[in-house]
């Protein structure tokens, strides 16, 4: 499944060819049928990496398999050794590939932690669906506000 084009606020998938490691990671996850893959550029948000890639697997077995294959392919094609955390349980596996941080989740764990929303802090969150419209001209002590 290709990288999702319906990314959360602040998340985009950059054009192909922009970063070889990033492209390798996205391609490998696509080959392994990762679900809902998104990429969040971290430039201006954090100095830990250039990109954060988040994807889901359908089961712990698929998450573990994707993580192992990704680490092996990064080493084979770039010579980089990536750090990997969370592999024994494979609910949430973190791969530190240097310029790209990869989070692989089971869908339930991904929705619980909701990293996409946390890292989209450069954007204003959407208002709650049941919120009444706010009149920016109204002041708290305005008689129109009293019932």
Keywords:
alpha+beta, disordered N terminus, 4 helices, 5 strands, five-stranded mixed beta sheet, 147 residues
Give a description of the structure.
By secondary structure, this protein is an alpha+beta fold. 29% of the residues lie in helices and 18% in strands. It has helices spanning 20-31, 60-78, 107-113, 115-119, and strands at residues 35-41, 51-56, 83-85, 92-96, 100-105. The protein has a 5-stranded mixed sheet.
Separation of the first and last Cα atoms:
54 Å
Question: Order of SSEs, N→C?
Answer: HEEHEEEHH
How would you describe the shape? Answer: globular
- Give me the Rg, rounded: 19 Å
Low-confidence stretches: 1-17, 122-127
Structural class: alpha+beta
The average pLDDT score comes to: 79
Largest sheet: 5 strands, mixed
Strand order in the sheet with the most strands: 1-2-5-4-3
How many β-strand stretches? Answer: 5
In terms of DSSP E residues, the strand content is 15-25%
SS summary, helix count: 4
Give the helix level as a range of percent.
Answer: 25-40%
């Amino acid at each position: 499944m290709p990288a999702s084009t319906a990314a959360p606020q602040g998340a985009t998938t950059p054009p192909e060819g922009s970063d070889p490691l990033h492209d390798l990671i996205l391609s490998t996850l696509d080959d392994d049928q990762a679900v809902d893959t998104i990429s969040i550029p971290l430039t201006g948000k954090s100095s830990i990496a250039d990109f954060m890639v988040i994807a889901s697997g359908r089961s712990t077995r698929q998450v573990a398999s994707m993580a192992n294959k990704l680490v092996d392919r990064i080493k084979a094609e770039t010579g980089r050794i990536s750090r990997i955390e969370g592999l024994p349980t494979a609910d949430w596996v973190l791969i530190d590939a240097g310029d790209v941080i990869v989070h692989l989740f089971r869908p339930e764990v991904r929705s619980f932690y909701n990293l996409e929303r946390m890292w989209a802090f450069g954007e204003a969150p959407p208002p709650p669906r049941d919120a009444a419209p706010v009149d920016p001209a109204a002041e708290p002590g305005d008689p129109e506000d009293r019932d």
